[in-house]
Design goal:
mainly alpha, Arc Repressor Mutant, subunit A, two-stranded antiparallel ribbon, 9 helices, WH_DNA-bd_sf, DNA-binding
Length: about 210
Amino acid sequence: MADGVYERLRTAIISGEWESGAQLPELTLAEHYGVSRTPIREALRRLEQDGLVERADRGMRVRGRSPEEILEIYEVRIVLEGAVASAAAKRRTEIDLIRLRRAAEAMAEVDSTDAYAMATANRAFHETMWQASHNRTLIDLLTRLNDHLARYPATTLTRSGRWESALAEHGAILAAIENQRPEEAAECAERHMAAARDIRLDMYAAELR
């Protein structure tokens, strides 16, 4: 039961059903999800470890959003994406290359006016690259980090010209992985994520205006 409550509450936070800064009283959550307070308490403990909720004066609340957090997330993600691209260039198999090429081709076929389709195809390419690293720790860290980024829902790919740039950047990453050039792959991935960071900060600032 605790696992089910944790997953439901986690999904609700990431999707924005429970908004940034929202108070999370145990009794209210127990009534909302139709369970006792014990699995709620356990779910909140795990979500605190995940960095999705934080302690407040009156219990727990959804962790707030801020430009500082965006910088923190991308500071880590730039390093991890570089590391995973480097590892993929060293360890990729022919099957990995086939999957990466298919993911890149799928991106090229996406309707650039469909934000959801763009975000889905983009994530598929990155997750395929993660798998090509054959490093379970890196994959786990990047998966967890994506939960934090998902609380900033608007995709950077809707920015004018960004989709075309992302396709070119992915192409450069793929070429470096194909040619087994780990340093080049890392540099391409890091530049790609740095560009996404800058756009994300601009988008967040625009929300506050």
